Amino acid sequence: MSDRILVLVRHGQSEWNLKNLFTGWRDPALTEQGVMEAKRAGVRLKAEGLVFDAAFTSALTRAQNTCALILNEMGQGALEPVKNQALNERDYGDLSGLNKDDARGKWGEAQVHLWRRSYDVPPPGGESLRDTVARTLPYYVQEILPSVLRGNRTLVTAHGNSLRALIMVLEKHTPESILKRELATGSPIIYRLNADSTVEQKLDLAA
Ligand SMILES: O=C(O)[C@@H](CO)OP(=O)(O)O
């Protein structure tokens, strides 16, 4: 068995998730429930017998706090995560701060779904998932993957769409199949990688 372990966790519920607002690069805090979700993720990862050697997170508070809560819960509060905005949420541009139901009322369900989940339709002034892949994937390949392949059990706490960008590659999604890939807040996905960086085994703790 290899030690090439990569764990992805979407941050716990944020204030803007709760208010149903497009968030993107805006920086709301975790809610009480979000804090609980992050702690629970730490408990579950510890129960899986995991110990991390490296951690990466975005430049946004909700992902950083989720990372710290997970590591504290695992008794690994001394592990300092690497923070980089390459892991930030997709930039929602002009939609940032708008209510998602109001947006559906204004532009229609189908258009809003395309902005939220399609591969290549950018929201006005913002990033498509393809644009998000273009900034997260180089960081993954240059920084995160070498850490995993060196045998560091590696935690990444980030965001719904920046993680969908990585999952697209890890789980070999097409631009069509990625439309349906949703990520729950605070639910770890544990990947064991082969030496060629493909996925040997996946354990989705949300499933
Ligand atoms: O608002 C956002 O930034 C994201 C994640 O919460 O939302 P969505 O699920 O609509 O892409």
Automatic annotation (TrEMBL):
Catalytic residue list: H11, E89
Site entry: Transition state stabilizer: H159
Keyword Isomerase (UniProt): yes
UniProt keyword annotations, A-Z: Gluconeogenesis, Glycolysis, Isomerase
Pfam families cross-referenced by the UniProt entry: His_Phos_1
Binding-site positions, substrate: 10-17, 23-24, 62, 89-92, 100, 116-117, 160-161
Family label: Belongs to the phosphoglycerate mutase family. BPG-dependent PGAM subfamily.
UniProt-recorded name of the protein: 2,3-bisphosphoglycerate-dependent phosphoglycerate mutase
Gene name per UniProt: gpmA
